[in-house]
Design goal:
With 109 residues, this protein is mainly α. It has two domains: 57 residues, Alpha Horseshoe (Serine Threonine Protein Phosphatase 5, Tetratricopeptide repeat), CATH 1.25.40; 51 residues, no CATH class. Helix content is 79%, strand content 0%. One of its GO terms (biological process) is protein O-linked glycosylation via mannose.
Length: 109
């Protein structure tokens, strides 16, 4: 967190990735690694770690929303919509997910 707070995103991403690789069953580390990757501009790596987070905790709506957001950024719109819809199934009415899904639909049409 210290490195990310100092805008040293590449270093933070590398450190979180190493930590997450050492503890591959740790949901919070997977999310932290994914977020650090996204902040460092490593979108494909971020997607991989958000996917890992969803595998670790499939009942957590936040994980599906995060995965949907990175898929959206990566241009994988159909997969993004599916992730957002799963997040809404798990947490109906979530404003962030609804907003993201609305933005996605405007890009898709």
């Amino acid at each position: 967190e210290f490195l990310a707070s100092r805008s040293r995103h590449k270093e933070a991403a590398d450190m979180y990735e190493k930590a997450a690789e050492l503890r591959p069953r740790d949901y919070e580390l997977a999310v932290a690694a994914a977020t650090a990757m996204r902040q460092a501009g490593r979108q494909d790596d971020a997607e991989r770690w958000y996917r890992q987070a969803v595998l670790l905790k499939p009942q957590d709506a936040r994980g599906h929303t995060n995965l949907g957001a990175i898929l959206h950024l990566n241009g994988k719109y159909t997969e993004a919509a599916a992730s957002y819809k799963e997040a809404l199934r798990l947490q109906p009415g979530d404003i962030t997910t609804l907003t993201n899904l609305h933005k996605l639909h405007s890009v898709m049409t």
